[in-house]
Structures are given as C-alpha cells and as structure tokens.
Specification:
- This is Cryptochrome/photolyase family protein.
- InterPro entries: Crypto/Photolyase_FAD-like_sf (IPR036134), PhrB-like (IPR007357), Rossmann-like_a/b/a_fold (IPR014729), UV-DNA_repair_photolyase (IPR052551).
- It holds the Pfam family DPRP.
- There is one protein chain.
- The protein is mainly alpha-helical.
- It has 3 domains: 148 residues, HUPs (Rossmann fold); 188 residues, Serine Threonine Protein Phosphatase 5, Tetratricopeptide repeat (Alpha Horseshoe); 170 residues, DNA Cyclobutane Dipyrimidine Photolyase, subunit A, domain 3 (Orthogonal Bundle).
- The chain contains 20 helices and 7 strands.
- The strands form 2 sheets. Strands 3-2-1-4-5 form a 5-stranded parallel sheet, sandwiched between helices.
- The radius of gyration is 24 Å and the shape is globular.
- The N and C termini lie far apart (59 Å).
- The protein binds flavin-adenine dinucleotide and iron/sulfur cluster.
Length: 534
C-alpha cells in the first residue's frame, strides 16, 4: 500500500484520525492482535475477550466500508500471511496455529508486518499509553518508515491543552479543570452560569441505601455473543485458560451499534437514579445504577461528546434530575479527561511512585475473593465474576485497604490492570497510584482517601454479614479496615493535621488516648504480618 493506517486495539472508531486523508482504493489498514499488547499484562478473561472481539468486529466494519485491512490475528504470523497470499481473508484460528504465548510481542509483530507490507508511510492516532507510543516510534525508526502521528481527537481536552492548564498551577484539582471544561465547551451551562446555579451536586449524591436496600434496579444492557464473539470466547478459554475471571454470562457491547443501545438504555432506565446512589454498595448488587459505559468509551465505540449530550438532553427535554445528570457528566467531562491529562503529565514516573514506601505483598485473596472480610469478599468476588466494580468499591474498598495495609503500589496497580474489563493504563495508573493509594504524595488529589469501617457500614450492608465488627479497633473480631485506618491516621498524624480536609481525622485520633493508640497500633502490626489470613 501507499500508506498504512495502524489502528490499535483501543482506537476502534470510524473517526480515527489515522484514516484521515487516506484513500481506501490505494491505502490500507493494519491491525495486530498480540498477547498483552505493549505491556504484557496478566488479565481477566473477559477483558481479553472484549478487546479481541471488538477489534475483529471493527475489522469487519472497515472491510464492509471498502478498506483493505491487514489483520494479524493471535493465531497468525506474517509468514502465514505471506503463504496464504490474501491477508484480508478469514482471520480464524487454523488448526495448527502457534500458541499465543509462543508468539512474539506487539513490537516484533508490527516490525514483521511493516517488513512484509513495506508501506511508504504509517499513520497512527497517538497511542493512549506512553510505552506504546515509544514502541511504535521505535519500530518505525528501525524499519525506516515515516511515521505520521496524529492528535487523539477522542478526548475533549488535548494533551497540549491540558499541559497548558497545568502551567503555573502548584495544585491540579479536578473541580477547577471540570468547571473550565464546562465553560469552554458549553456543557450544562445557562449563559455564563452553571445550569441550576451550581457546579456541583455532590452533597445530594452520596446516599447509602439504609436498611431497606436498593430495591429493584433495571439491569444494564447485555448482548448475546454473536459468531465472532463466540469464536473469541473459545480462543480465550483455550489460550488463556489460567487467567483470572469468568466468561460465563459474557455480554459486553463489542460494536458501536451495541454500545449505542447500552447508552440509550442507561439514559432511559438508570440515569435518573444514578446521582443519589452512585456511592452506595450492597451485596448481590454489582452494578447499581451505574452506566457500565467505561469499556465502550475506552475502546472508542462511544464518543464522550455524544454520551454527555445524551445526558444533558435528558435533563433539558425530559426533566431528569439535574443532580443525577450533573453527577454523571462530571465523571466523563471532568474525571475521565482530567485523569487522562494527568497520565501524560506524570508518566512514566507515576507508575513507580511509592510515597509511603509501602512494601507488603498483595494478599493472595485479591485473586480469589476468599477472605472473611465481607466488604472485600463482595468487591473482589464481583470483580472476578464480571470484571466490574464501581468507583467507590475500587476506591474505598479494595483501594483504601491496600493503602492503609501498606501494600506495594506497583503490585496493587498490576492487580487493577488485570482484573477490570475497562482497564487501560492511562486511566488505571492515575486512579490507582494517585487517587486510591496517594502514592504520588498528592500531586492531583486533595487528600488520601481513607475511612474506617463505619464508612463501609454507612454506605453498604457488607458489615451485616461479616466476621468482624466495624466499630472495633483492636482485640477479638476487630475490623481490619478500622484497625488499619486508625493506624494510618496515627502514622501520618502530622501530615494529616496540616491539611484542612484531613484535619478532622486527627482530632478524632487525639480523643482516643495513649492506651487505645498503643492497642490498635499493636493490633495493626500483628494483622500486617498475616494479611493472607484475614
Ligand atoms: P459510571 O459510574 O457510570 O461513570 C460514568 C463514566 O465516567 C465511566 O464509564 C468512566 O468512563 C467515567 N469515569 C468515572 N470515574 C472515572 C475516573 N475516576 N477516572 C476516569 N474515568 C472515570 N476506569 C476505567 O475506565 N478503567 C480503569 O482501569 C479504572 N481503574 C480505576 C481504578 C481505581 C482505583 C479507581 C478508584 C477508579 C478506576 N476507574 C477506572 C474509574 C471508574 O471506577 C470506572 O471508570 C467506573 O467504575 C466504570 O464504571 P461505569 O462505566 O459504570 O461508570
Ligand atoms: Fe468490611 Fe470491616 Fe465491615 Fe467487615 S466489618 S464488612 S471488614 S468494614
């Protein structure tokens, strides 16, 4: 081909700038399946299946629109391509296909493909991950092929605009960034003022379900696997048999058409109640009123603009509550964009940050859910089953336990990257290292997010079925979340007192007295030595 557009596994949208100006009659597309892409991550079976199935569906869509797509499926090598002459034929797994783990990584497969296809130039939308960016640049340089990297137009805020926003700011705060995004893009604005007169409805959006529980919640859209997905599921069961997670009940959207249905169903059935209950947790209620749209957004099957517009329209035209609509839009126009900007500002150093020098290994039950702590059992159990947990489960259950128990940040981050279907490094690393573990020392957050078992009790029913008692700081049946919380506040008392947002924690500590402090300190030390047994 004259020019070749490289489409990566999380860049599956028709507006991909790699295709801009290319001519389907003379140019072509290259897509490559590789075990673990650039980073070689260990991951949930459903995560692998989502990526492979969405890529194969997108390949078929491009072909239907007249593109020649050179598609290197997991079971294929470039030598096989050459042998079978037509690379655009079936991408199924031949009987004698080499095992996926025997294949070289993404870089070698890209190099092989370029050597075989010899394009005059390679176009590519800038990868979402810094390592992939470096890899693509390196492979092209070695192959002597001109690389035409194009800005990623999926996001509302470009990398350059985010970098400019950080200039001269000592503290990067999501809230300020979000307000600027709203003003600049005219999202939920009435003239110069925020719709409803307020930027933030957080105070209305933090309810627990009380004693009565969540009641009936319309389930999220589920999509019956088609032939392409069934083939991928069989492949994953065969090639990735030892990976965590389950494929039973796999129903994620893997095409744009499915993703649009998932979006419409969320707006119609769950957005209304999303706001008040977005932090609430309940056993047997893995999805709550959440959207489950992160996977489709991260694969680019959905555009953030259309998701935001659909939510705003539901408020303006159908009278859905502003607190819910604003709460949802804040996640996409605020958090998601902010996190992506932070990733590019702070990587690669962010991935290895360890502000508190935490050095304990990740308890093995993070991989099984087999712990007597009911909150961890529920959050990890649904994670392994569905590849999903909502924000507060990730932040305040599995995340804050890892922080206060002093687990090595890198191990925690690798776990998050492995177990969530929506995990991609640009969003996982800042959320885990910065938000959940405060391991960067608070470059873009206002405080470490820690709380005792009392918070879990207020926001969920987990404590009702637990072997531990949330109010107990030490002794028999003491709640490990509570013990580790107080030990954390005790260890970092001076720093927490200096921050107005965490000062109240230290006032609580001061009221406890020396004997109590000595008792929970000793209990925390003992628990820390037998984390695997909790
Ligand atoms: P909803 O609650 O319905 O929110 C709507 C959308 O807002 C999400 O789909 C997502 O695109 C966006 N969003 C919400 N919060 C965030 C956030 N903090 N950062 C970025 N986008 C956000 N999200 C991922 O997509 N991939 C990850 O690997 C990931 N890892 C996380 C790790 C930790 C420790 C934490 C605290 C959060 C992480 N998040 C991650 C963010 C968030 O938890 C998920 O996006 C969300 O739970 C996905 O479920 P949902 O689509 O039902 O979200
Ligand atoms: Fe979790 Fe503690 Fe409640 Fe048990 S008592 S569910 S460990 S917070």
């Amino acid at each position: 081909p004259r020019r070749l557009a490289l489409v990566l596994g999380d860049q599956l949208w028709a507006g991909n700038p790699a295709l801009d100006g290319l001519d389907p009659t003379r140019d072509a597309v290259l897509m490559i399946e590789a075990r673990g892409e650039a980073s070689g991550v260990w991951s949930h079976k459903a995560r692998i299946a989502v990526f492979l199935s969405a890529m194969r569906h997108f390949r078929d869509e491009l072909r239907a629109r007249g593109w020649t797509v050179h598609y290197l499926a997991l079971g294929e090598t470039v030598e096989r391509w050459a042998a079978s002459a037509s690379a655009s034929a079936s991408a199924g797994e031949p009987e004698s296909a080499p095992r996926a783990d025997a294949l070289p990584g993404f870089a070698a497969r890209l190099a092989d493909a370029l050597a075989h296809l010899r394009p005059a130039a390679l176009t590519c939308c800038e990868p979402g991950e810094w390592r992939m960016l470096a890899l693509v640049q390196d492979v092209c340089a070695r192959a002597g092929i001109a690389l035409d990297l194009r800005d990623d137009t999926h996001f509302l805020c470009s990398r350059a605009d985010f970098a400019r926003w950080t200039e001269g700011r000592r503290e990067w705060r999501m809230e300020l960034f979000y307000r600027e995004q709203r003003r600049r893009l005219g999202i939920l604005m009435d003239g110069d003022a925020p719709a409803g007169g307020r930027w933030n409805f957080d105070t209305e959006n933090r309810k627990g379900w009380g004693r009565h529980g969540p009641g009936l919640i319309p389930p999220p859209a589920r999509f019956e696997p088609d032939a392409v997905t069934r083939e991928v599921i069989a492949l994953v069961e065969r090639e990735f048999a030892d990976h965590p997670g389950s494929l039973a009940g796999f129903g994620w959207a893997v095409t744009r058409a499915d993703a649009l249905i998932a979006l419409a169903e969320f707006i119609d059935a769950r957005l209304e109640q999303f706001g008040p209950w977005q932090d609430a947790m309940w056993t047997g209620t893995p999805f709550g009123w959440h959207s489950l749209l992160s996977v489709a957004l991260n694969l680019r099957l959905l555009d953030p603009r259309e998701v935001i517009a659909a939510a705003e329209t539901a408020w303006r035209e159908r009278g859905l509550p502003l607190a819910s609509v604003e709460g949802f839009i804040r996640q996409i126009a605020g958090w998601r964009e902010f996190i992506r900007g932070v990733y590019w500002q702070l990587m690669p150093g962010l991935a290895d940050a360890n502000h508190y020098r935490h050095d304990r290994p990740l308890p093995h039950w993070y991989w099984t859910g087999e712990t007597r702590m009911a909150c961890m059992r529920a959050a990890i159990g649904q994670t392994l089953e569905h590849g999903y947990a909502h924000h507060i489960q990730r932040l305040m259950v599995t995340g804050q336990f890892a922080l206060t128990a002093g687990i090595r940040p890198r191990e925690v981050s690798d776990w998050y990257l492995a177990v969530y279907v929506d995990a991609v490094e640009w969003v996982e690393v800042p959320n885990v290292i910065g938000m959940a573990l405060h391991a960067d020392g608070g470059r873009f957050t206002s405080k470490p997010y820690v709380a005792s078992g009392a918070y879990i009790k207020r926001m969920s029913n987990y404590c009702d079925g637990c072997a531990y008692a949330p109010e107990r700081r030490h002794g028999d049946g003491a709640c490990p979340v509570t013990t580790f919380y107080w030990a954390f506040v005790d260890r970092h008392e001076a720093a927490l007192r200096r921050n107005p947002r965490t000062q109240p924690m230290t006032l609580g500590l001061a009221r406890l007295g020396d004997d109590e402090r000595a008792a929970f300190r000793a209990h925390a030390a003992a628990l820390g030595n037998r984390l695997d047994e909790l």
